[in-house]
Amino acid sequence: MSFNDYGVDQKDVGVRIGVLQRIGVRLLPVMILVLMAAGGCQPNHNEPAHDAFILKCGPMSVYSTEFLEELELKKTAYSYDIQSFPDEYNEMVMEVVAMLSDELRFLRLASEKGIGISDQEVAQAEAAFKKDYPENSFEQLLLQNAISYTLWQKRFKRKLLMDKVIQAELADGVEVSASEIIDFYQDQKTAQTIDENELIKNLKMNKVQVRYDDWMAQLKDQYPVEMNHDLLKQEILVGLTIKKESQ
Length: 247
Hints:
Helix content: 55-70%
Low-confidence stretches: 2-49
Distance between the termini: 19 Å
Strand order of the largest sheet: 2-1-3
Number of helices: 10
Number of strands: 3
Mean pLDDT: 76
Shape: globular
Largest sheet: 3 strands, antiparallel
Order of helices and strands: HHEEHHHHHHHEH
């Protein structure tokens, strides 16, 4: 099973400063998702001759072409040729390795738990996502960055899937007590009334964030990721020897 079967999303995405300045801050959320889909639009001179796996977690894999797409995306954060600085470039490569390894674990868990995203859910989320933007501005943004709508939607779907995994595994079991709401007002030292539903939502999210790191550590133990060290060393990394161990 290919990593691309689920689309792509990243927490750590480089930002094209010039484009953001032109479109303004209000378009930042859509621009981030555009950048998530922008990987691979430019040629990569290091591309391996064969599409071997780079990362593997059970039946799921990230292949070289997919990995290089993510690497090209990451490189857009730099205004200079980062590949001319081996230490910095290799650090960036390993950041992509770590990011995609975590995403593989998310997808493996989703598969085993039977968590999926229907076409209807995607359509509804997409409509909600685009409703606040001027007519055709979203499509124009994709066009300006040479990104196909199909590719963007595929990666948007992955974001929805990962959010759904977090909701099912972390958020659904979180409860907020009346005493915690009282403590919040006392800690904030404010008499201002806050919408109770919004407050509960925020308190739940805080609890999820606290639990997230421990949960991810458990996922790493549960779903080790195999790395193709030879391919990384020979065709992607620049003069770096890495240890043979799971990410």
